[in-house]
From TrEMBL:
The keyword Cytoplasm does not apply. GO terms for cellular component: ATP-binding cassette (ABC) transporter complex. It comes from Duganella margarita. This is ABC transporter permease. It holds the Pfam family MlaE. The lineage of its organism: Bacteria, Pseudomonadati, Pseudomonadota, Betaproteobacteria, Burkholderiales. The chain crosses the membrane at residues 65-88, 100-119, 152-179, 200-222, 242-261. Keywords: Membrane, Transmembrane, Transmembrane helix.
């Protein structure tokens, strides 16, 4: 095939790829709007729907909270020790606490919490749920309320809970590692932490966790909503969900870094 003949084919493939890419993001946006509309509907929290919602919240949060709590505590202790020893060796011990808070609480914990929930819960659950659905069947309003919304809400809530508990646990471990079991350093500790968590930084941290949770909760279930049982015959959709999810998480992390340090 001549280069002149292959150029139109290449352009056509690029065009089809771009259209498919835009279409996938449009479907994700449409699914997000549907879920927000369901979340704002009072009937979604009726007496008959609360047990299902509560069951998903507990099932997706409790096991992850135990495993992630232990893992984050061990990693936090190791990183806190590394930061403290490095700061002492360079004569920068007065900056050790601020470095610990910025590296762990502001950056690593929200990122790892979102990745942990995605890999352990939402991505596998989205694939498993889609395999039990009939292909090419219109989703009813009852399914939106009873099947999709509880799973999306559970993924979002799990990220919130893991990030909040791990941030508090890391702050406690940082105090104990730096000052030991004494209450006399609490005033200086809270002053340094308060200087780090100014209103702008706190707002960026909250927004980052919220957007992380929305990505983790919505993206895996969007594929189940559109593909149904055909999803299991297209392994590439599982990989594309993972790539899309972590691309969104990376973009959110980059935006938060720019907001905090530029």
């Amino acid at each position: 095939m001549s280069p002149q003949a292959s150029l139109p084919n290449l352009l056509q493939r690029l065009h089809l790829g771009a259209v498919a890419w835009l279409h996938s993001w449009w479907r994700l946006l449409h699914f997000a709007v549907l879920m927000f509309s369901v979340a704002l509907t009072p009937s979604s929290y009726g007496r008959d729907k609360r047990p299902v919602l509560a069951a998903h919240l507990v099932a997706d949060t409790a096991p992850n909270l135990a495993w992630y709590g232990v893992m984050s505590a061990l990693v936090s202790l190791v990183l806190i020790r590394i930061v403290v020893v490095t700061s002492l060796s360079y004569g920068l011990s007065r900056f050790a606490l601020e470095m610990v808070v910025r590296v762990l609480v502001l950056e690593l914990i929200p990122l790892t919490a979102a990745a942990f929930v995605a890999l352990r819960t939402t991505l596998p659950a989205g694939l498993e749920f889609s395999q039990g659905r009939s292909a090419d069947r219109q989703v009813t309003e009852q399914e939106l309320h009873n099947d999709f919304f509880p799973r999306v809400a559970a993924g979002i809530f799990a990220v919130w809970m893991l990030a909040a508990v791990s941030c508090v646990l890391t702050l406690i471990l940082a105090y104990l590692s730096l000052y030991g079991f004494t209450p006399w350093a609490l005033t200086g500790y809270t002053r340094v932490v308060g200087q780090v968590f100014n209103p702008a930084v706190t707002l960026i941290l909250v927004l980052k966790i919220v957007f992380f949770s929305l990505a983790v909760g919505l993206i895996p279930m969007a594929s189940s909503f559109y593909f149904g049982a055909s999803y299991r015959n297209k392994v590439t959709h599982g990989l594309s969900d993972m790539v899309r999810l972590f691309a969104v998480i990376l973009l959110i992390e980059i935006a938060s870094l720019m907001g905090n340090y530029y």
